[in-house]
Design goal:
With 79 residues, this protein is mostly helical. The chain has three helices and no strands.
């Protein structure tokens, strides 16, 4: 998955709770989804409402993004 796809996957978890986004491209993307009902201002979301699966998925996606897109990355290896 690309960084953009991972970012959308991560933010979909939040969007399903109605979180609105500061990033206009992400907001526009979710505005185009029939199921999305924006209701929570950025900075006002309490992630304690996540269930165990959602929490695990957020952690997994964040860790994967960090692994792939922070330097040095394993994909930058010269071996």
């Amino acid at each position: 998955m690309s960084k953009e796809e991972l970012t959308l996957a991560l933010n979909e978890i939040y969007a399903r709770y109605g979180l609105m986004f500061n990033t206009s491209s992400i907001q526009k993307y979710f505005n185009s989804k029939d199921w999305y009902v924006p209701s929570i201002e950025p900075g006002h979301f309490d992630d304690s409402q996540f269930n165990d699966y959602e929490r695990h998925n957020v952690d997994t996606i964040v860790n994967y993004i960090c692994l792939l897109y922070t330097s040095p990355s394993p994909r930058d290896s010269t071996s």
